[in-house]
Every structure is written in structure tokens, then in C-alpha cells.
């Protein structure tokens, strides 16, 4: 009657969403102020005022042009504005024809994997810790996800483990830096060493291994951390971006993929991803939001709230004896489970109405993720629970 | 290096788009006023004023709530508003949980087909004439499209041909009424006879055969034509809708699928399509537009322009000797090729800068499609070319 695999995908809630929904029910029972919900990565900072102004301005123009179909790849002028900004920031001569507007980063990454797929034995490398939805992407594209275990020391990359996992069937590797769930930014040194391995293996196997750079958090960095522009380090890099976090527009589904000119056979790779976008039901990205994104070029997100949360949590939790991985970007923080078991510790925390996500789903057992896109007041109210919890583990 | 099938999908422009782009180039050469472009179905009527008002109102609210993620199926209150309106109009007790907001009708139809798929031998029936993109949907879902040839007499349905084409592998049939490209509305009698056949065959093969009702044009009807609510005639109907045409928002990618309660195992069918939506990269439909659609419930499209075009074209072309299929809905009209060959006639028309799309791509050779969502002044300027063309064929 219907496909059972699709049914399972539709009927199963992710662990994150389950925890979040538990929090909503619990808040209804005991009061919102008594639930400390660190489960979900929904920006808590409003969209910059420039977004509202851009929409209002656009509304005064011709509605047929504003809301009409754009070409599948996006409005030409909007693509040009994004390309120009990227070129200016990176020094890479990105042009409008390298940019393709998508309904957020998710379809951009999915479309890229689908385009790179050779057959059901194609392998895509995932670097733990990783966004759990990536494993669904593997299923959706019918390829094999090959996991490189986390470097739990400094959350850069176990280069030997990576090299070992590249096979003649490897078509791509997903890089997500700043990272969800760790908030860690891959250093230039790490990226250069990774590029070296990928170049060697591409030559050995006679085909390019692509980096799929999923970078929705690239503008969310702290302490002046550098987020290196990956195509300048490794040419066969496809960029997948979203304004979900940088402009706090996650519901509006606006992002892009970019196949820079330095990619081997760049124009045709772009066309292959374009074909995959059709298969995903893409017609065009929301047209008004394409133009909003173009108008908001140069607007920086206000990171004050995220920075305060990060600082407060890191300092307090470290002082209680937690091992925290210091995030340089995004709005997440990993802590090591004081009792060694992330699932068990998450359950213990739940009893104190503290909702933190086990790392196992991120390919990172023994750790837990805190989403720090929350209210500072909630952070402060939650600290005694963290303290009590680690004491229970002693 | 990349998937050649995806590359072909991305590198190939549809015949419609090719003709449209030819028109743009030609307009640059000889002046826009000398090109009569009937190629593309892009609404020429602006979005109702209510859309602008709704956006402005929403912008005054909390931006975090406005632009934040909604649940994958959509904002609860917006779903409830759409469900209530549907229930009121149809008498069917549709609830919020039957509605799932999508990025337009395309992913809704694709997701439904994907959810109904059993294996690569699954068959989906297409009723000619049909939207050419449906054949891409078959490829995208790796199912077989089985075509019922057109009833070229009155563009209803050749029931015997339909019955003959249903097999034990038939999972669904796409119904698109009002129809692109003919503008014809399937009558209640036709739908009842179709339902009778589907019930008989469902019983014979021991599984439901679903109607996938792709109905973005349902509010665009003329002369008081009735568009019957299909689930009331045949219970196993899944509705795929888009506000692209009714609110002139095609670029904003906002639509829904609805699995009415009368569908067998309704709740689980909904979940299976929900799973398929994840596979398509759906996270949520654009949140602000979900709320705009909910606020615009009850707003009717202004059909004056389309009606005038339809009347002017139908009367003039009929008087010149063309056989025109009188459209009762949408913004298209089919004409029979005066020389019997639609491709050849389209080329002849092109020489007169008249751009009309051959019916072959719609599964309807010997006919041509005119998109009537154009300027009335252009229609009037184009009439001498139509007259001269048919005279050349005599």
C-alpha cells in the first residue's frame, strides 16, 4: 500500500525532537521556567532589522516580479550580489553562474550527494561528530555513509583514520565547520592535511573526491576564530550554505550551493547538481527571500546572546568539574559525560528537567550536546542542576 | 565523477523553457512588442492586495516566531486555518493533522508518488494531456509512468483505455483538473465513472489505487464551472495543492498535501508521505508564507484578465478556422494543429514570432498549448499572425 521505508522515516521522531517535545509537555506541567531545554538548535536571536526593512522595500515593488517564478537556479541579480560578496570575501572569482539558490542547506547537501552518486556502493565520508540527519541523507540517496570516529582529544580530525576509510568508491566527504554538535572550527592546518590526503587518494583512484562543505554556521564564530575558505585549500569543494543561522531565518528555507570555478569540470558538476535538484522537487527557492538575502549582504548576525551563553556555561560547568569542549563557533557545546555513558547521563539530567542530547546520535558516544541558542536567564537557572548532577556521579 | 542521469536532467532545458528563452532573445533583437509569447504558465496577475497586507501585519510580530522553524508538517495554527476552510467548502471533516505544508505542489506530488512506490515496477497512470514534468517525476521516483492517451474529442477521459492500463502494479493515478495544458475540467460524470473503475480494480488486485489530485488550478474556473471535490467521489484521494496560481505566488513555493480522513489507513499514509518529504530535503515550508496563506483564506483570485484573454483568443481563433478546445479553467488553451503536425506548426509560428508549445511533450501530438496568462494587448497584436498562419496551411 505504501513504502515501509518511507513510513518508518515519517513515523520516527529524531531523539532531539523527542527530547524537545518532552520538554514542551513538561513545561505545561511544571512551568516553563522549571525546564532547562538545551535540546534544539533553533536561533533564539531575532532576524536583523535589515531583513524586515528589505521585505518592506521589496513589497513596494511589482508583485508579479517579486513573487513570480525565478529561474530554477535563482534570480540573476540576486545570484550576482551573493557571488560578488563571496568573491570579495574570499578572493575566489565566484560568478552568478556558480551560485544556485536552494530551499536551505539540507536540499543543497542532498542534491550534491545525489549528483556525485555512482551507484548503491558509492561511499560518502562523515566526520564524527556529525549532524544526525546526514545518516538520513545517505539513506535518501542510497549511498553508504562511512564514519571517521571523532578525535575526542581536541575535536579536529584523526587523519590516519580518515585516510584508512577512503576507498575507490569514495565520492565525497562532508565537512561541517563550525561544527554541529561540537562548535569546533577545523583549523587551517587540519584542512591542509585533509586536502593533502584527498589529493593523494584522488590521484590514486583516478577520480576527484569532493568536499561537501556544509557551512551554515560560518558567520557564527567567537574570539576572532578563523574559518578558512576551503576551496582555496582544496579545489574540489562544493559549498552548501544557508541563511538560517546567520540571518535567523531557519523557517524561510533560503540557502544556496556554490560550485566554484576551481572545481574540476565545474560547469558540468553544477549541471549535475541542478539535475538532482529537479529530482528533489525543487522549482526555485522562495523568490522574495532570494532578494532579501541579496539585500542583506554584509549584515552580520548579533552574536552577543550566544557569546554570553557560551561563556557562562563554559565557565560554570568547567568549575563544577565537567570536561567541556570549548566551542569557537555555532551555538552548541559538547560536554563529556561524567559517568561515561551519554544516554544514561541524559536520562539522569531529564529527572532534573535538564534536557541535553546524548552524543551517540552524532557519532560521538560519551559526550552530550548543549544547544546554547537559549535565554541567558534559563542558563543561569539551570546551573544548580548541572552542579547537582556531576556530584551524583562522583 | 558525477551521475550522468542527473547531469542530463540538469543540462536539458524543457521545450517550454527553450521556447521562452528564444522569445527573450528575440525580444532583445526586434522589440518585446513584436514577440507574441504564449509559452510559459507564469501568472500575469499580481498577488491580491491581501497578501501584501498579511506580510506587513506579520512583520510587526515576533521575528523569532515568524521566521523560525515550524514543525516539518507546518505551523499548527496555519494548518488548522487551511483545514477549517477546506472542511467548510467541501463538507469533509478535514483537520490540521490531515494537512502538510510543502514547498509548492511539485514536492507534494513527488513525495506522494515516492511514498506509494513499492519497487521499480510500480506503475503510476498519467492521463494525457499532462504536465510534462510528470515524466521527470516518474524518473525521479524510479517508477513507470503508464500513459492513457487523450480523448481528443472532448478532453474528458477514454475510460476503456484507462481500465485497460490498470495492472496489479498500479499504485496511483495523477489527476490534474482544471488541466494543464487543456484548461478542461473533468466533469462529475467522468470522475464518477473513473472512481467506479478504480474501486473495481482495487478490489480485484487487493490494494488501493490512489488518486493523486494535483489541483493548483482549482480556483481558476470560468462560466461557473464546477470542480468536484474528488475525495467525496473516491475516498482514496490525496490532494496536492499550491497557492502559486490562486494567489499568484509561484516563486514563493507554498502549497500542501492533504490526506483526508476518508483515505484507507489515512494516518499512516500521511506518515509515509512525511517520510518521503524528508528524503526530498524538506525541513519545513517557508514559515512566513504558511502564515500568509492562512491569513488569505477566502481571498479569491481576480480572473478578469485571464477571462478576457480566453474569450478574445477563443473567439478570434475559432473565427479564423482553428479548432480550439474551450477551456473552463486554468490559463491555458489547446488548439489543433491546422496542418496536423504540432512540432512543424510551432516552428512555422516561430517564424512569425508567435511562441506556442507543441502538444507532443504533453502526450498530445497534433495539438498546441497557448498560455493565456499574458497581456491582453499582446493577444490583440498577435491575432494577425494566427490568421496568416492558418491561411498558409490551407
Describe this structure in words.
- Two copies of one chain form a homodimer.
- Chain A has 394 residues and is α/β, with parallel strands linked by helices.
- In chain A, 43% of the residues lie in helices and 13% in strands.
- Chain A has helices at 4-11, 15-30, 49-59, 63-67, 76-90, 105-116, 133-141, 159-165, 188-205, 266-279, 287-295, 304-320, 342-351, 376-392, and strands at residues 36-37, 99-102, 123-127, 144-148, 170-175, 210-214, 237-242, 255-258, 324-325, 332-336, 354-355, 357-358, 367-371.
- In chain A, the strands form three sheets. A seven-stranded mixed beta sheet of chain A has the order 2-8-7-6-5-3-4, with helices on both faces.
- In chain A, helix 5 packs parallel to helix 11, helix 6 packs across helix 7 and helix 12 (304-320) packs parallel to helix 14 (376-392).
- The termini of chain A are far apart.
- The model of chain A has no long low-confidence stretch (mean pLDDT 96).
- Chains A and B meet through helix 1, helix 3, helix 4, helix 6 and helix 7 of A and helix 1, helix 3, helix 4, helix 6 and helix 7 of B.
Search tags:
homodimer; 394 residues; alpha/beta; four-stranded antiparallel sheet; 14 helices
Share of residues in strands of chain A: 5-15%
**Tally of alpha and pi helices of chain A:** 14
Taken in chain order, the helices and strands of chain A follow as HHEHHHEHEHEHEHEEEHHHEEHEEEH
Largest β-sheet summary of chain A:
7 strands, mixed
Major sheet of chain A: order of its strands?
A: 2-8-7-6-5-3-4
What is the 3D form of chain A?
Answer: globular
Total count of strands of chain A? 13
Q: Mean pLDDT of chain A, as a whole number?
A: 96
Amino acid at each position: 500500500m505504501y513504502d515501509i521505508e518511507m513510513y518508518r522515516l515519517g513515523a520516527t521522531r529524531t531523539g532531539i525532537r523527542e527530547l524537545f517535545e518532552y520538554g514542551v509537555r513538561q513545561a505545561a506541567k511544571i512551568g516553563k521556567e522549571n525546564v532547562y531545554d538545551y535540546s534544539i538548535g533553533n536561533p533564539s536571536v531575532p532576524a536583523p532589522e535589515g531583513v524586515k526593512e528589505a521585505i518592506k522595500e521589496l513589497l513596494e515593488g511589482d508583485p508579479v516580479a517579486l513573487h513570480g517564478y525565478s529561474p530554477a537556479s535563482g534570480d540573476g541579480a540576486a545570484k550576482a550580489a551573493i557571488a560578488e560578496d563571496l568573491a570579495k570575501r574570499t578572493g575566489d572569482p565566484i560568478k552568478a553562474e556558480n551560485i544556485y539558490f536552494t530551499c536551505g542547506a539540507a536540499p543543497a547537501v542532498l542534491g550534491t550527494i545525489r549528483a556525485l552518486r555512482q551507484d548503491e556502493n558509492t561511499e560518502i565520508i562523515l566526520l564524527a561528530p556529525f549532524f544526525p540527519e546526514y545518516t538520513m541523507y545517505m539513506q535518501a540517496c542510497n549511498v553508504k555513509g562511512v564514519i571517521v570516529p571523532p578525535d575526542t582529544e581536541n575535536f579536529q580530525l584523526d587523519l590516519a583514520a580518515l585516510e584508512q576509510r577512503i576507498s575507490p568508491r569514495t565520492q565525497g566527504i562532508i565537512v561541517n565547520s563550525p561544527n554541529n554538535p561540537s562548535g569546533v572550527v577545523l583549523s587551517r592546518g587540519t584542512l591542509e592535511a585533509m586536502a593533502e590526503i584527498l589529493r593523494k587518494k584522488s590521484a590514486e583512484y583516478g577520480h576527484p573526491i569532493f568536499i561537501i562543505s556544509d557551512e551554515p554556521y560560518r558567520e557564527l564564530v567567537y574570539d576572532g576564530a578563523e574559518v578558512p575558505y576551503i576551496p582555496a585549500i582544496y579545489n574540489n569543494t562544493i559549498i552548501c550554505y544557508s541563511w538560517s543561522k546567520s540571518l535567523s531565518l531557519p523557517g524561510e528555507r533560503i540557502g544556496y550551493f556554490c560550485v566554484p570555478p576551481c572545481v574540476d569540470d565545474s560547469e558540468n558538476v553544477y549541471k549535475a547538481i541542478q539535475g538532482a535538484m529537479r529530482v528533489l522537487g525543487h522549482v526555485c527557492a522562495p523568490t522574495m527571500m532570494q532578494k532579501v538575502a541579496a539585500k542583506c549582504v554584509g549584515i552580520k548576525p548579533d552574536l552577543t546572546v550566544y557569546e554570553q551563553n557560551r561563556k557562562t556555561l563554559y565557565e560554570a560547568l568547567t568549575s563544577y568539574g565537567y570536561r567541556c569542549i570549548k566551542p569557537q563557533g555555532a551555538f552548541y557545546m559538547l560536554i563529556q559525560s561524567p559517568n561515561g555513558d551519554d544516554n544514561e547521563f541524559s536520562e539522569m539530567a531529564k529527572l532534573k528537567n535538564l534536557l541535553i542530547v546524548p552524543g551517540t546520535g552524532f557519532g560521538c558516544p560519551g559526550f552530550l550536546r548543549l544547544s546554547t541558542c537559549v535565554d541567558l536567564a534559563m542558563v543561569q537557572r539551570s546551573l544548580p542542576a548541572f552542579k547537582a548532577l556531576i556530584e551524583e556521579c562522583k
